[in-house]
Backbone:
């Protein structure tokens, strides 16, 4: 299934280095469990690495695209304001820009994590939709860990339990 090339995917491809190696089943199951719980997944397990300079470049471009038109529109109003208010406003906006980068990186990380999990899911469980079975597989995996199923029997165990239900 070819991946659609929208702006979000172009940014992700530009900002991250992706491994060509397939994900191990145990790593996929651990990543799925952590992602379902809302936790950050270890990027090395999912095979991606951030290119920080490129992330800064993309973020700066986004900030410029947002704030330059706003500043252009509000220039006359801001020029007539008291300089103290303008200074406070610029301090607040600068703080928001710097804080926003952390949110930007976090959002990118969540998107690439989701994309990598879904990509590996299609390889490991091609007949089971990720959105429909991700919690069910997590339950089966937790049960397999409790029953101490070996790594080599794990995939068969999960598939057998999925087919039974």
Residues:
């Amino acid at each position: 299934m070819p991946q659609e090339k929208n702006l979000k995917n172009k940014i992700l491809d530009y900002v991250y280095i992706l491994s060509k190696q397939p994900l191990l089943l145990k790593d996929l199951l651990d990543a799925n469990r952590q992602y379902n719980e809302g936790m950050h997944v270890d990027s090395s397990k999912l095979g991606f690495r951030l290119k920080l300079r490129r992330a800064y470049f993309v973020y700066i471009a986004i900030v410029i695209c947002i704030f330059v038109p706003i500043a252009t529109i509000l220039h006359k109003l801001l020029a007539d304001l008291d300089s103290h208010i303008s200074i406070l406003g610029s301090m607040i906006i600068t703080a928001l820009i710097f804080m926003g980068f952390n949110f930007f990186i976090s959002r990118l990380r969540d998107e690439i994590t989701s994309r990598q999990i879904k990509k590996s899911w299609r390889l490991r469980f091609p007949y089971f939709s990720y959105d429909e079975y991700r919690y069910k597989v997590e339950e089966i995996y937790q049960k397999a860990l409790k029953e101490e199923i070996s790594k080599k029997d794990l995939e068969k165990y999960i598939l057998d339990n999925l087919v039974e239900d």
Summary: The mean pLDDT is 91. The helical segments are 7-15, 25-36, 43-46, 52-80, 83-124, 130-146, 151-164.
